[in-house]
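Problem statement: downstream parser choked on a complex file, so we are re-checking the raw output for the 2-deoxy-2-amino glucitol-6-phosphate run. The parser issue turned out to be on our end (a line-ending mismatch), but while we're here, posting the original submission so the record is complete.
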Amino acid sequence: MCGIVGYIGKKRAVDVILKGLSYLEYRGYDSAGIALISDNSARIFKAPGKLSNLKEILCLQKESDINATTGIGHTRWATHGLPTEINAHPHTCNCKSLTIVHNGIIENYKDLKPVLEKKGCKFLSQTDTEVAAHLIAHEFNETKDLLKAVQSAVKKLKGAYAFCVTHKSMPDRIIAARKNAPLIIGVGEGENFIASDIPAIIEYTKKAIYLSDNQVAEIKAESIKIYDENDNLIANKVENLPFEPIALSKMGYKHFMLKEIHEQPDVVRNVLVDKLHDEDTAVVLDDVQLTKDELEKINRIQIIACGTSLHAGLVGKYVFEELTGIPVDVEASSEYIYRNTIADENTLVIGISQSGETADTITAIKQAKDKNSHILIITNRKDSAMARLADSLLPINAGIEVSVAATKSYMAQLLSLYLLAIYFAENKNSKNSLIKDIKKELLTLPSKLEAILNDTKNIENIAKKYSSYKNFIFIARGINYPSALEGALKLKEISYINATGYPAGELKHGPIAMLDETMPVLAILNEGIVYDKVLSNCEEAKARQAKLIGVTNFIDEKHKNLFDDTVIIPEIKDIVSPALNIVVLQLLAYHISEYLGKDVDQPRNLAKSVTVE
Ligand code: AGP
């Protein structure tokens, strides 16, 4: 992961870079650092922890030490080496003339390191990046040309990288390179920018060049030159950026996560607009680039995704199979890759990703592409690497999601999958009355979500009551089994409580052994085919003294002696209920984390965008 920013122009580089990094902290916040280059000097400042620690250090510096107009900066998600100051970027060479910030993993760093050590390179950190610093410095000593040094070095690097390199003898340029990690060059007037992502530079320019894999760029204040993998100069392809300057405001909410949870009714309206008009009209999905004939030939669907997006995919499986009869496999991207997956031109492969940058999913999609399957991407970033691989692109339009814990993007992914499944069913001429029911439910979803969000007192009280427990089990069956998985993921990632989601029927096959009064069980029970079954599984848990929380849309006398606490959600058909149940679980996780005083928006060890495999 990691976020990188580079600036060259007339402004104080430190200001542009710090601001840019603040928009990239979602990519990691284990440490931050900056190198400021001017008049044959390279000043490096680093701090472990969040960007605020680096800012404090910079505030203490003399103006003359931080007024350079060329610089590079980094916010780190640790892959190799502890999140210490010594491992923080920028890294440098023996004479500290060259500086580098890097996002990715240099896979052959262990092979390169001893070779460089033999040549006299002294390594200070445990990072793979420092190997690249020494390697490029070594090449520079031969050529005295920073561009050539980088061009030559990248041919020796294996793995993934996006980096910016400077040399104190050449403060008028930054060299950038990219392979399997995002990097854009913002095009300004008399100034240019480099960043891992658009929010870091959108305030300054709306024009950018998306660097492609294996390209190297030489960026000066007045010029940008891009070279391909054979070191040939190529024409610059300048594109308009799709973003307005982003006001990253919490809008009065204590955390971005809470704000994003509350945005969900509008997110649903956004997804549905122009696509679902009423229950009697067919869903319009112009984004699907399959002809009716091609669509009819689809006999298999594979959904690949990670984390929360994977859970959305699991809900999608239920809906697709129910409405279309097409068999659907859902698999974690990291498991889909590096084996012989069975797919062909009649397979629809759906990649789901909030960021569109998740390395495992990108690799999986590329693997599926090689099998000639139609690639449909559901993402919140229509400018992302994954979007660029799509045959059909379904943007979810959830708006920028800042909190590391995904909430509103999950909601938008669910809605997109419902629409997609209906679209397929309608194109296959299914006259299923269930389709009409689902459409009706989707259209009333925003007001039902609002009903939950307008009165959260009960959930807050439950959160407080259960916040001291160290373990949790979430159970459900059928289409809400993914809700149990997602609820458990939310709780563990922001509160560090050990929470696991199980199909309720699996409890008796092992997990029940863990149950006693110290292990609360949260059960999701919707009126429908599995309601009685889940109720029985709850009885089994109760008999083992587990504290029981019920999340249900059904008022039932039987709940009274069974559940210690209950959350009632509005009436909803079972097949659409994951979209309501999840909001209860998001709020529960949020309030437990908040009550425990955890860092809700930036939980430890995580990053919003996971760009390493
Ligand atoms: C969600 O709360 C997590 N932070 C994480 O599981 C995330 O969903 C996963 O890394 C996938 O990200 P993507 O949707 O951007 O591909």
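For whoever reads this later: Residues 433-453 form the longest helix (21 residues).
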